[in-house]
Each structure stands twice: as C-alpha cells, then as structure tokens.
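Posting here for the record, re: beta-D-glucopyranose.
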Amino acid sequence: MALVTGASSGIGRATAQAMGAAGAKVAVNYRSQEDEAKNVVAAIEKAGGEAIAIGADVSDEADVEAMFKATAKRFGAVDVVVANAGMQKDAASAEMSLDDWRKVIDVNLTGQFLCARAALRRFRAQGDRGVSKARGKLICMSSVHDLIPWAGHVNYAASKGGISMMMKTLAQEFAQERVRVNAISPGAIRTAINEEETEGEAGKELLKLIPYGRIGAAEDVANAAVWLASDLADYMVGATLYVDGGMTLYPEFRGNG
Ligand code: BGC
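Prediction output follows.
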C-alpha cells in the first residue's frame, strides 16, 4: 500500500499511477485539486488497481495525522510513503517576502517532516507485515537543487537542501528497524511547476544544462520511485537518486574550466 502526497498532478500523479500499475493500493493525496485527484484514482482503477483520494494540507499537522488514519482505515496498513508535495514561490532574494519564504519551507520541508514522522510511527507500530523485506519505505522527493544553488529561488533551494539532511538523518535513525528512507532528486521534469522554463526559447536554453539532451517526463521519476520502493532496492538506505539526465554533471564545464 502506497501513499503519495501531492499526487493530483505532475511527478506525484505519475508516481501514484506507477505504484498502482506495480500492484500497490494507492492513496492519492491532494490539497486543493480534488477533481484532478479523483481523475488519478479513476486512471488507477481503470488500469485494474485500487485507490482513494484524500485531501490534506501536508503543512498542517492535524491534516497529516487524519490523512494517515484515513489511509490505514481504508487499506489496513501503509507500506510506502512518497513525500512529494512541494511548491515554488520564486523571487529575487533581496525582494523575497517573509511570507513566501515561510510558505515554501512550511510545505516543502516541514510538510515532508510531518509526513515522514507519521510514516515512521506507523511503520514502527505495524512491525513486520511480510509484504516486503523492509518494514516500510519512505521516499522524500527532493530536487537537483539540494545540490545546485539556484539564484532567485532561495526558499526552494533551502527547502530541498534541508530535505537532503533530514532524509539522511531519518535513514540513519530508522535503518536498524529495517525501515528504508531514501530520496529522489529530479532535474528538469516537464510539469506544471516549470511550464514557463520548459517551453519555447526557455526550453532550448534549459536543454544546454541537460547533457542527455531532453527534458524529463514525470514517468522518468515515477519509475525510479517504484524501483526504490521495491525489494530490488532493498540495500538502498539513505541514498539520493539523481534522475536528471546528467544535470548535476556541471555540463557548462564541457570544453573549458
Ligand atoms: C524545479 C524545476 C526546475 C528543475 C531544474 C526542479 O526542482 O522544481 O522548476 O526546472 O528543478 O532546475
């Protein structure tokens, strides 16, 4: 059983569908896009899977607790959590409002912490269910910007840098209970979050930063998430998978530097 946050669109949506196709029952979390979340549920069901849509703001402690309760009530257990919900509110750093700083940290970092805490408590309480080698799998959706500084996006980059150390700390703390905590850091994936950067002229400029020569699809990330959650990845603990077409390889250094 897999719970995916921020699953009404983009990487979350593709991940929820891929988990469903791989045989997991899926909880499709959304905050405001209820209709879209229901469409994701319908798509999973159409493909022969089982899913429910659950509304919750991941930055709200009571919402997160209620979401885990509802998921466990419907499916009996939670085995995989993909803490994916995230947002951007971009501004030049000198102009960034405290509100925009807080909002992004609240959703991207504190929201993931709240979901991680609820997941880890549940994995611990469930013990060994015999469905997988590990007792639970937590995947934190990060970004190449947990490594690459990003002018004009200081709140976002700080949130993703924070996720990286949060993930490793949780992995270190929970590995002895056979809970696997890992992260995925996507590069430029074509979704609603970056429509402007990935289309037209901007899209061509962006390609210069991607050695593999194409902008990613949400499924590229979803496939990595399914693998990371599976027993094929049973020895992956505290790792970050960069699914980025080589964006973190400093392509601007090709030929000079
Ligand atoms: C951001 C995208 C951006 C990509 C590469 C992601 O984390 O959400 O907007 O295109 O990083 O810079």
